[in-house]
Amino acid sequence: MQLYITLAVLAFMIVMFMLQKVPMGVTTMTCCAVLAILGVLTPGEAFAGFTNNSIILVAPMMALSSAITKTSIVPKIRAKVDEMGGKTGMALIIFFYLVTIAFVQFIPATATFSILVVFLATLSDEGEVTPTRLLMPMLAISCAWKGLIPIGMGATAFATINARYSNIIENPAFQLQMLDKFKVAIIPALCLTLWCLFAWRLLPKKGNVNTKGFKDVKETKVLPPAQEKLVFIVFIAVMAVLVLNKWTGSLMYVAPAAGVLILIYGKALTVPEVTKAMTADMIFLMAGVLGVATAMTKSGAGDMIGNAILSILGGHPSSLFVMFLFTIVTIVMTTVMSNSATANILYTVAATVCLAGNWDPRGIMLIIAIGNVISLGFPSGAAETALIYAAGNYSIKDVWKFTVPYILIAIVTIALSANFFYPIYG
Q1: Distance CA 29, CA 285 (A)
Q2: How many beta carbons lie within 10 A of that of residue 349, not counting itself?
Q3: CB within 10 Å: which end of the chain, N or C, has fewer?
Q4: Where are the domains of the chain?
Q5: CB contact at 8 A, 299 and 3
Q6: Beta carbons of 335 and 407 less than 8 angstroms apart
Q7: Helix, strand, or coil here: 400?
Q8: Minimal CA–CA distance to 273: which of 239, 241, 231?
Q9: Residues 151-161: pLDDT tens digits?
Q10: How far is 195 from 407, CA to CA, in rounded Å?
């Protein structure tokens, strides 16, 4: 009976992820509650995700990253963007790309484009570099680099991914380390950036940027110099502990929390700001997925699903074939449905397959993490994708010469890079 209950709960979770009628964290908490009520898991097992090391690391890191946005860095970059408004040519293109890369390490992509589109709208429609020729490539740059650099939230990307499958595959040798995502993703990111540097000419020069779909971004009051300096010191110290985790060990998991406490005492962060960041839907989502994963392992549902998919793939499929298969599935799914829904569905499925096949899961998990944000082919891929299509007044036929090769480059480079570093057979 526990097997059938778990399969029903998993099906409910997948359907709700696809429909997105409620926040995903609400969905996973509902699943955990049902599993506990029906006796598949004890209450402690169902909600043990909240004490997982990955959650302890990621939650305060979200608050710590938000502190950076209260410093003078963002206003200075915005001032520089305004100054560059009169420039033309490759210098302007490179500048906007670099700003996009910097912003998406700390700020959600929707907020990034809310800031940058205002300045793009002031560019002239005359000449080669026009607003509609920059807008889509900037989205493409965002897709390639979002959370890639191991600073800000990118520093805890490995822990976020580990949390999605660690309750299914418990072998510590198969856990990701801090630089693993960067190592696998940097070659695809550079290849996609090169495409964006030259392929912007394939986009239409027509029309002005429409900013009606973008919410106004309120100016955040910059911290006083002493508190700003404290933010920088704490942030650098926490980053150092994370980077040096080989020597700092378990201190890595408490460093962000300690940093947040220091910033609260130093009045650089308020308790409501920290509470808001640490209770974001993402935290409930991660903790809830861990509960569902525990139920899949305990009930045998994971083994059943993994063996079923493995039988379709064959007894000993090529590692490269498996990498290409998961890359294609990930990018196709995230093209037509939200990237977060894509990732949350595929992490669980992939983990069960890897466990059944006794495969090294790291390459496949990184494929899902990197590929699920390549969401620029259709407006439905992500909130920022819908906004960019609306702002640029793009139709699919306007941009396919740019987006289709971009997607193909992403598929090839991500699959090859993941297979090079982490083939499934070790």
Answers
A1: 7
A2: 18
A3: N
A4: 2-421
A5: yes
A6: yes
A7: helix
A8: 231
A9: 877 888 888 89
A10: 11
- Token pair in block for residue 42: 């004890």
Give the tokens for residue 399.
């941009």
**Position 22, amino acid:** V
Amino acid at 342: T
Q: How confident is the model at residue 213 (pLDDT cuts 50, 70, 90)?
A: very low
Contact 404, 334 (CB under 8 A): no
The token pair that represents 406 in the structure block: 């971009």
Residue 426: burial class (beta carbons within 10 Å; 0-12, 13-18, 19+) = exposed
Residue type, 335: T
First-last CA distance in the chain: 36
pTM reported for the whole predicted model:
0.80
Per the model's pLDDT, the better-predicted residue between 98 and 117 turns out to be 98
Rounded Cα gap, residues 167 and 336, in angstroms: 29
pLDDT at position 345: 83
The set of residues, in sequence order, having a beta carbon less than 8 Å from that of 30 and lying 6+ positions away, is: 12, 16
Determine how many CB atoms are found less than 10 A away from the CB of residue 222: 16
- Which of 272, 387, 369 has its CA nearest to residue 327? 369
> Per-residue pLDDT for 49 more than 90?
no
Copy the structure tokens of residue 365.
Answer: 């998990």
| Closest of 406, 317, 344 to residue 137, by C-alpha | 406
Whose structure tokens read 């989205």?
Answer: 139
Residue 113 has pLDDT above 80, yes or no: no
Where helices occur in 314-395 by DSSP H, the ranges are 319-336, 339-357, 362-371, 383-391
Closest CA to 366 of 326, 333, 321: 326
Q: How far is CA 115 from CA 32, 82, 83, 400, in A?
A: 38, 11, 14, 26
Can you tell me the distance from the alpha carbon of 213 to that of 386, in angstroms, rounded to the nearest whole number? 9
* pLDDT tens digit sequence for 235-285: 889 888 887 877 888 888 898 899 999 999 999 999 999 998 888 787 887
Helices 157-165 and 180-199: crossing angle, nearest 10°? 120
32-40 long-range CB contacts below 8 Å, 24 or more apart? 32/287, 32/288, 32/291, 32/292, 34/5, 34/9, 35/5, 35/6, 35/9, 35/291, 35/292, 35/295, 38/5, 39/2, 40/2, 40/5, 40/6, 40/9, 40/295, 40/298, 40/299
